[in-house]
Amino acid sequence: xxxxxxxxxxxxxxxxxxxxxxxxxxxxxxxxxxxxxxxxxxxxxxxxxxxxxxxxxxxxxxxxxxxxxxxxxxxxxxxxxxxxxxxxxxxxxxxxxxxxxxxxxxxxxxxxxxxxxxxxxxxxxxxxxxxxxxxx
Length: 136
Fold this sequence. Notes:
Layout (H helix, E strand, L loop, with lengths): L21 E10 L5 E4 L5 E6 L3 E5 L2 E5 L4 E4 L5 E5 L3 E9 L14 H4 L2 H13 L7
Antiparallel strand pairs: 1-8, 2-7, 3-6, 3-8, 4-5, 4-7
């Protein structure tokens, strides 16, 4: 029996979570030391970040103000731009979400409404488990 997608909120991409996401890569990102703007797009993977700083995140042409303890989940092929205020460190993972629809961006403030809390906790725990003591 196929599950219903987690509902789309304000034009955000629905996500099917019949299976847990596959963690392809995870770690700590350090930015804002040599430049205050980063731009990228991941061709095949979802991008999940847990922030410890304030910055502006542009997802395609939508702007979000991120703050400590916010998360973002962005589908593959989506243009992402960060505008840092200075040195900035976050936890990140690259995910493969089987069967997920990836045509629109997910908001940093709405993702908690759309992805299972259990999946998010497991992914966050996996990220944290790889860090040296006191790294974040």
